Amino acid sequence: MFDPPKGFFDPPILDINMETGIVMPNSGIRTIMMDEMFILGLQKMVEDFTGESGGFILYHLGYWWSRKHHEMTLTPTLKRLGFNSVDEMPEEAYSVAMDKSFARAGFGRVEVEEGYKKDKEMFEIKLSNSAYAGIVGNIGRPACHLYAGMFAAYFEDFVGHELGVIETKCLSTGDDYCLFVAGPRKKIKAARFWKSHGMTSKDFAKKIK
């Protein structure tokens, strides 16, 4: 069992400067505090301007955001965990790091199917307590566009090739947890899936009435 350094995944310490209006956690990346309604508002804004293909745009938003975050934090994270590169990092260590990082940021808990680094072309990612699906409730369709994009970005460096991610179970379809399938981008048709699935602006309107 991978044992991270003591205190490494403790909840972040926030330095809130009331004079400058800047909130800086101990990660060194400026943080802006926004509540869950921002997520719903973002969904509505994107779909109001782009139509029902907004789900795929949100998928790419999650991907881009996580890709940039990964670029900023990967090297110092590896160093603190005792690794020189992603290639040196065991699968178990990466899975633990993903789970703890999501948990400390309020994104829920993550479990990854074993063997994804070398043995399996496609693998499953289980998400408990999705922040997004937890907000919208049961709407009869997957709602975790942002998470899917985030998972694609975070796991690409580790598996060494481009990934696509779709969602096969979701709190928003009445399931007890969310389940994603990740695999080579050419085989996992994420574009087709997120253009035809996922929460729509009509679903949003119903939730806020």
Number of contiguous helices: 7
- Rounded mean pLDDT score: 81
Spatial order of strands in the largest sheet: 3-4-6-5
Global shape: globular
Instruction: Tell me the Rg in angstroms.
Output: 17 Å
Uncertain spans, ≥5 residues at pLDDT below 50? 199-205
Roughly how many Å apart are the termini? 48 Å
Assembly of the depicted chains: single chain
Residues in helices, as a percent range: 40-55%
Q: Note the main sheet.
A: 4 strands, antiparallel
The count of β-strands is 6
- Quickly give the structural class: alpha+beta
Order of helix and strand elements from N to C terminus:
EEHHHEEHHEEHH
Report strand %. Answer: 15-25%
Strand and helix layout:
Elements: E1 14-17, E2 22-25, H1 36-50, H2 54-81, H3 91-104, E3 109-112, E4 123-128, H4 131-136, H5 145-159, E5 163-169, E6 178-184, H6 190-196, H7 201-208
Antiparallel strand pairs: 1-2, 3-4, 4-6, 5-6
What features would you highlight for this structure?
alpha+beta; two-stranded antiparallel sheet; 7 helices; 44% helix; 15% strand
